[in-house]
Amino acid sequence: MLRWAGIRNFAHTYNCTALESTANRFILERFKEVAKKGNEILKLTDVELEELLSSDHLNVKSEEVVFECIVRWIQHDVKNRKQYIAKLLKCIRLGLLSTTYFIETVKKHRLVQDNEQCKPIVIEALKFLYDLDIVGQEIDFNNPMARPRIPHEVMFAVGGWSGGSPTNVIEAYDTKADRWITVDHQDRGPRAYHGCATVNGCIYLMGGFDGMDYFNSVRCFNPVTKEWSEAAPMNSKRCYVSVAVLDNCIYAMGGFDGHVRQNTAEKYTPESNQWSMITPMNHQRSDASATTTGGKVYIAGGFNGQECLNTAESFDPATRQWTMIAPMRNRRSGIGVIALDGLVYAIGGFNGITRMNSGERYNPTANTWTNITEMYSPRSNFGIEVMDDMVYAIGGFNGVTTIFQVECYEPTTDEWYDCTDMNLYRSALSACVVKGLPNVEDYIDKVRNQVMQERRRNRP
Predict the structure, then answer these.
(1) Are residues 333 and 213 part of one domain?
(2) What is the pLDDT of residues 299-355, one digit of tens each?
(3) How far is it, in rounded angstroms, from Cα 242 to Cα 357?
(4) How confident is the model over 108-125, as pLDDT tens digits?
(5) What is the pLDDT of residues 392-425, one digit of tens each?
(6) CA–CA dist 196, 208 (Å, integer)
(7) Do both 283 and 374 map to the same domain?
(8) 383 with 429: CB under 8 angstroms?
(9) CA distance readout (Å), 320 to 73, 267, 297, 337, 363
(10) Which of 179, 265, 283, 358 could form a disulfide with 253 if both were Cys (CB 3.0 to 4.6 A apart)?
(11) CA angle centred on 116, ends 112 and 118, rounded to 5°
(12) What is the phi/psi pair of residue 325, to 5°?
């Protein structure tokens, strides 16, 4: 990673188009690391830096990262580079910054205050942010100041229970624009209480229920070709199944086959298109949830046919054994479990009495659970995923009705934030994230997409 600039310059000098394109894509995708680590970015010219920071494909969680990169680059040679602050400031999508950050950090920065050319930029940004905060005006994607970058990963919410019956609707979430779009290429049949996983850029749906039948079938959607195909079926029918991915293999655990709650588990290898049984879990579990971190599979909560569970266990592929870990602080069925930064989060669910908005996280090293801030909406049987280092809770059932509300959790601040609602009320859905789609623009907000296409047509 440390020599990406040299590789790009070599490729450009010797007209190695493919290599230059690969280097550029690497820089854009790994920009957060590139901007903060090493000195390669400090070697760029003002023109090269401007081109990089202006790209719609720059992968940043927040525009704050872009401003911090500009400051770091200028401070490397303040005397000769401070003159470029105004033109580099225009590379930032200032309208996407928080008003507080813009006023306290950008506007008050010495480099900005000492440059007269920055004043009209600051005034325009303040007016834009004022209209958003005070007037309540919606963000205009046509305004270059607020045009979202292209996401490098897209979250898909698939199937579920809506309006009294299962659905096959798929929605894609454009995290940069905070918008959901409905995907046209749905599977042939509805599916709820199923599992969803991403391997090698493809989305696998397994198990579940269509209102009459319990499934062991597996369907595969390729978001590039937009085609569905049949994969090998699981060995057991599994509704309320828990699914996780480890080393490009899919693990399907527990569930309900229409007769009994299961403790069996199996592993799918895409290359051979085969399922193989693994060691059974210590407990029967349906309506549990699973994730992976540190080379192990973790599963928590669920329902055994008699009570909601607070137990949790982990599977080590090296030993092929399940090990009980510390129990959660709450019983949780219809729970959401996900790993982030080496910790396992257990969110929401049903404790046998009420739907919960509480959450807790597990530290594998300490073998302990600690509480986190509560969600805004209580929910069970919802989708859960991680994007941009945040945990997303999607839809679900609040004890009265299915919901379409989405919220995300920021671990560094221990806070939940509201996101844009899905288009469809639903519970019993499953979610997954696909990274690096070459046709990602097919799954972003249509209004924003139209703006981008217009820009390309008008480009000289």
Answers:
(1) yes
(2) 999 999 999 999 999 999 999 999 999 999 999 999 999 999 999 999 999 999 999
(3) 20
(4) 999 999 999 999 999 999
(5) 999 999 999 999 999 999 999 999 999 999 999 9
(6) 10
(7) yes
(8) yes
(9) 50, 12, 11, 21, 22
(10) 265
(11) 45
(12) -115, 180
Regarding beta strands 218-222 and 202-206, do their DSSP bridges make them parallel or antiparallel, or are they unpaired?
antiparallel
Q: Yes or no: say if 205 and 191 are a contact pair by the CB < 8 Å rule.
A: yes
Q: How far apart are CA 434 and CA 199, in angstroms?
A: 9
* Angstrom distance (rounded) from CA 319 to CA 413: 37
Distance CA 319, CA 416 (A): 37
* CATH number of the CATH domain containing 396: 2.120.10.80
If one counts the domains in the chain, the total is 2
In a domain, 450, yes or no: no
- Dist. CA 449–CA 150, nearest whole Å: 10
Residues 96 and 181 in one domain: no
Question: Residue 384 in 3-state DSSP?
Answer: strand
**Residue 11, pLDDT score:** 64
pTM: 0.91
Which pair of tokens denotes residue 181? Answer: 């779009």
Task: Using DSSP bridges, classify how beta strands 296-300 and 289-293 pair: parallel, antiparallel or unpaired.
Answer: antiparallel
Can you say whether the dihedral through the CA atoms of 268, 270, 271, 275 is positive or negative? positive
- 142 with 233, same domain: the answer is no
Q: SS in 3 state form for 149-211?
A: CCCCEEEEEEEEEECCEEEEEEEEEECCCCEEEEECCCCCCCCECCEEEEECCEEEEECCECC
Are residues 216 and 311 located together in one domain of the fold?
Answer: yes
Q: Do 137 and 158 share a domain, yes or no? A: no
Domain that holds residue 334: 153-442
In the predicted model, what is the mean pLDDT of the chain? 93
CB 288 within 8 Å of CB 301: yes
